[in-house]
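Entry for 2-acetamido-2-deoxy-beta-D-glucopyranose complex. Fields follow.
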Amino acid sequence: MPFPNSSARTQRHKLILAATIIPLVMLVVVVLLVVIIQGRKEGPSSEILLEWRGKGTTPYLREIVLGRCYNYVATVNSELRNKDCLKIWELFENAFMYKNPCSITEKDYQPLMDMASHPIPCNKSLFWSKTSNLVHRYTKANQDFVTLEDTLLGYIADGISWCGDPSSPGVNYKSCPKWTECESNPGTIYWKMASKMFAEAACGTVQVMLNGSIEAGAFRNDSIFGSVEVRNLNSDKISGMYVWLMHNIDGPQSEFCEGRSITILKEILKKQKIRVFCEDNYRPVQLLQCTRNPEHIACKACS
Ligand SMILES: *[C@@H]1O[C@H](CO)[C@@H](O)[C@H](O)[C@H]1NC(C)=O
Ligand SMILES: *[C@@H]1O[C@H](CO)[C@@H](O)[C@H](O)[C@H]1NC(C)=O
Ligand SMILES: *[C@@H]1O[C@H](CO)[C@@H](O)[C@H](O)[C@H]1NC(C)=O
């Protein structure tokens, strides 16, 4: 009699053992699987950002772009008061967030460009190359002219950098690719597209402020002006281009209107059937240079 009893007890023990061990083993397996899958998902990729040689995304990017946009439509150009700045920011971030910053395409930015672009009155477009500081001081003082940075697209992005990263949080604040690392980076594509649209929109007389103190020549065909803007001017709408060739007030005077690079520019524009007028040290701009150098000989009333 003890035998079957004891065997029954063993049986019960085995059942109890199985009932506790099987779920335990299953639990361990599930926990292990979860740990492994989580590890794959947010292991190295979420903590290790891609590394680049350029400046990272400007802190407070969202606040800056949104704030500039509201400032622009509310106080700088109230004709644009109906632009939706929140939507513009959304399209801006959608263009680059969570993307590899070396594979940005025009398609990424097209919705933003369509949404934020606006017409520019004829005769007002002012292009520039290597005269950033002077040209923007000039357009601040003279409302008759508009540079790219005085349009909504130029205004919201001026002087800041940004790029995405495939891993969380989708923005790289540490580093962004330089132009030399890859051309299809968020900044380069943005400025090329905005410059192209700015050039296409130009009508009437247009002007460009170039730097006559650059030794290599005032006009470079690989600059944004030379490679993007000049090529996208619509000659049917443009009656002529005025070149303002500015020297640093203290020199050097490396190139004048008859110089080699200006001649190349004239030839390119002649092929596009656009007439060119060039002026050395365009006086209204020189007078602005004089506000900081009033004693200079070029600044005397009858020099
Ligand atoms: C642009 O300039 C041309 C020539 O100077 C002038 O005839 C025309 O009326 C101007 N257009 C506007 C919109 O100011
Ligand atoms: C010309 O370029 C030099 C070097 O980039 C710069 O320091 C200078 O301010 C520029 N001059 C003008 C008139 O913009
Ligand atoms: C720029 O000019 C150089 C020399 O004049 C020429 O070799 C080159 O092809 C030009 N580049 C472009 C993009 O037109």
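NOTE: The pocket of 2-acetamido-2-deoxy-beta-D-glucopyranose (ligand 2) is lined by residues 130-131, 133-134, 211, 213-214, 246, 248 (CB under 6 Å).
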